[in-house]
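Human:
Class, as today's exercise, you are to examine the entry below, and be ready to discuss the fold:
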Amino acid sequence: MTTIILKPRKEESVLRFHPWVFSGAIARIVLDATHRAAEPEEGELVCVQSADGRVLGAGHWQVGSIAVRLLAFGDERISGSEDEWISALLRKRIAAAYRMRQRLGLLREDNNTYRLIHGEGDMLPGLVVDVYGNTAVVQAHSVGMHRCRKAIAEAIVEEVKEVDAVYYKSDDTLPFKAEISEPKVGYLVERLKLNVERSSKVESGEFWSVENGLSFRIDWLRGQKTGFFIDQRENRALVERYAAGKDVLNMFCYTGGFSLYALRGRAKSVHSVDVSQKAIDLVNANVERNFPNCPNHKAVTADAFDYLSEQRAQGHQYDLIILDPPAFAKHRDAVKNALRGYQRINAKAIEMIRPGGILFTFSCSQAVDKEAFRLAVFSAAAQTGRKVRILHQLHQPQDHPINIYHPEGEYLKGLVLYVE
């Protein structure tokens, strides 16, 4: 196996179980006898050693500032062939993740939607797996996990008793510079063919999954991410608690998750807004499924900033507004512009809330930390001149765990504000 040797004293973060090795920490690379290139292949399993020769762990090599994503540390030595070792490790990690979701009470008759694997949070860096009923949707964020995709699918079906199909959807998540010729999308395990009716429904995007007793149409073939944003489950439930008798605005609504919870919470009216007509079609389908012929829901296809400006110009106000935009900053270079965007959209929303109203506001940009996001919202409140108090500080749910040794895994940030 190729060995990555670190510079003196650069092993300290690995000894603290941080799962990333940065390229700047590497002193040299000792290739195994089969290599002809100057460095390992992207996605190759490599061994990491300290400058004094201690074995620190093993992980996937990748091109970029994060050079190795560690799968195992010094006390988990590789034995047997690499394929046997990685298959055994995947089964072990997936089984542990599944047990945790069971113990958290996420697998219930009224809830079959949850995240099974959350990358570093479940000690499988570069891998995300979401479960919708009997189907697991897998996304690889590293070439190493892409190369392991068949072993991942086999481990899921073996360890997760409810799952009988595994769909692979990594066309938008793999590094864009990676040279990959194998398919990035498609079924890895498909027993759905045993049930022709169910298979045809899935292929047409008609598969329904249940979250806390509400049904959602999941289109993992063509939808964003794995088909649904599971990470807002607990925050949606909190909206339900506040919704009774209120006029609710759900901006960037996508499939309408917050809207459905607000309707179940007996909201007076709910307006769902998204720039995508496809998203609005999903919202309408979800509302009709759960609340047939619902008279107090309206879905609008519009740009968020334009809609807020137009509604304010017309003197329209809401009691409860949800702002859950897509990531304004996908990398560090975009943070400054993202913070301006968060300030602008929050100021517009605060201006439109009736006295005594509530704002749920979020950032899912990993590059924007909690303090920066809170400062942007503070600036928005100060700009409006209204009195604002923080009621809740929100984050991702328990099936999106944060490895205590990897604080970078905390990506979802939210505030619930009371506006006088």
DSSP finds eleven helices and 20 strands in the chain. The CA atoms of residues 58 and 98 lie 23 Å apart. The first helix runs from residue 12 to 15. Residues 82-208 form a domain with the Transcription Regulator spoIIAA fold (CATH 3.30.750.80).
